[in-house]
Specification:
The protein has 364 residues and is α/β, with parallel strands linked by helices. The strands form 4 sheets. It has an 8-stranded mixed β-sheet, with helices on both faces. A 3-stranded mixed β-sheet has the order 1-2-3, with helices on one face. α2 links the parallel β2 and β3. It is globular. The termini are far apart.
């Protein structure tokens, strides 16, 4: 009969491929018990969207089988790690991670990426919110087919939901025909702050913030108001988009906000006749940014008619065509982003632990 120490010793050989630490020291093994040769425990993964979840579970089962255990009761759950300093944020204490989606210029499909990534994360079981911070031209409600006006309860705006994603946008508060709003910088900052403080976001694993293009008031307000897990940069392959995206990276680097990675949208068109990839807007812009600035390359999103149609009709592609190539591209990107957030969270936790140990040492 195996012992608890033997089980833990075997499980210590299982290493998280992204965090590069064994699952025992990471605290991913919960409620371990051994009863009459039957081994039972919970494997608590760092996010339901981790791209390596199935690999970790497979390695865990193999490790236990290697001990000669034939009766294993394995429960697999996930608890998203906090990738930001919640102790420093009185405004959104229930939000574990905030991901701001940015681009240097308009027209790169940043909102389409934000919407489909939020939905992809929600499909994994994560609790997700989506804040449309593009005050001048909010389009998230249109893309999600939301036409309701949010209710106010106890002076808190209740965000409507679409496919499990809580949503707030300036687009809810005036007619579509008037959506080309004209606002000065201080007003924009005030609206963004209100969406952060006066909305009942509740408990969220991920809050996706769709920033307006450029490096104006909204990105600065968010970066300076709340701790952010990181920034996701969206670009297209051509040089003009890549060169402007670099400016956004520079701004967030100056603000000491981590860069989660870069997504290349409209990367290629698949020929409907021969399936050959046609690079209409050039090739390799996202990867070049990744290499030049040493930031992760999240992935490529193809140019596809259904993505555009889904955005126009309020039926995003990850919901309307879940088995399509473009939906798989969004879902793969979402998993890579979730994995990156887990890495940022682990690094932040390690830094906090190191700082705490340093403070405990008596001064010489």
């Amino acid at each position: 009969m195996v012992t608890v120490d033997q089980v833990l010793g075997s499980l210590k050989k299982v290493v998280d491929p992204e965090l590069h630490k064994d699952i025992v020291s990471m605290g991913m093994i919960k409620d371990l018990s051994i009863n009459s040769g039957k081994v039972a425990f919970t494997l608590e993964l760092t996010t339901p969207a981790c791209p390596f979840n199935s690999d970790i579970e497979r390695d865990v089962r193999a490790a236990i089988a290697g001990l000669g255990v034939t009766d294993l009761n394995l429960r697999v759950t996930a608890r998203v790690m906090e990738g930001r300093a919640l102790s420093l944020d009185e405004l959104l204490p229930g939000v574990k991670n905030i991901v701001a989606v940015a681009s240097g210029k308009g027209g790169v499909g940043k909102t389409t990426v934000s919407v489909n990534l939020a939905l992809s994360l929600a499909k994994t079981g994560a609790k997700v919110g989506l804040l449309d911070a593009d005050i001048y031209g909010p389009s998230v409600p249109l893309m999600l087919g939301l036409k309701v006006q949010p209710e106010v309860v106890n002076n808190k705006i209740q965000p409507p939901e679409a496919a499990g994603v809580k949503v707030i946008s300036m687009g809810f508060f005036y007619e579509q025909s008037q959506q080309a709003g004209i606002y000065r910088g201080p007003i924009v900052s005030g609206i963004v702050k209100q969406f952060l403080t006066d909305v009942n976001w509740g408990e969220l694993d991920y809050l996706i913030i769709d920033l307006p293009p450029g490096t104006g008031d909204a990105p600065l307000t968010i970066a300076q108001t709340i701790p952010i897990t990181g920034i996701l940069i969206v670009t297209t392959p051509q040089d003009v988009a890549m060169n402007v995206a670099v400016k956004a990276i520079g701004m967030f680097n100056k603000l000491n906000v981590p860069i989660i990675g870069v997504v290349e949208n409209m990367s290629y068109l698949s020929c409907p006749h021969c399936n050959e990839q046609i690079h209409l807007f050039g090739e390799g812009g996202g990867k070049k940014i990744s290499e030049d600035f040493n930031i992760p390359f999240i992935g490529e999103i193809p140019l596809h008619q259904q993505i555009r149609q889904g955005s126009d009709t309020g039926k995003p592609t990850v919901l309307s065509e879940p088995t399509s190539v473009q939906s798989h591209a969004f879902e793969k990107a979402a998993k890579v982003i979730a994995g990156r957030i887990s890495i940022i969270a682990a690094e932040m936790r390690a830094a906090e632990e190191a700082e705490a140990k340093a403070q405990e040492k008596p001064s010489a």
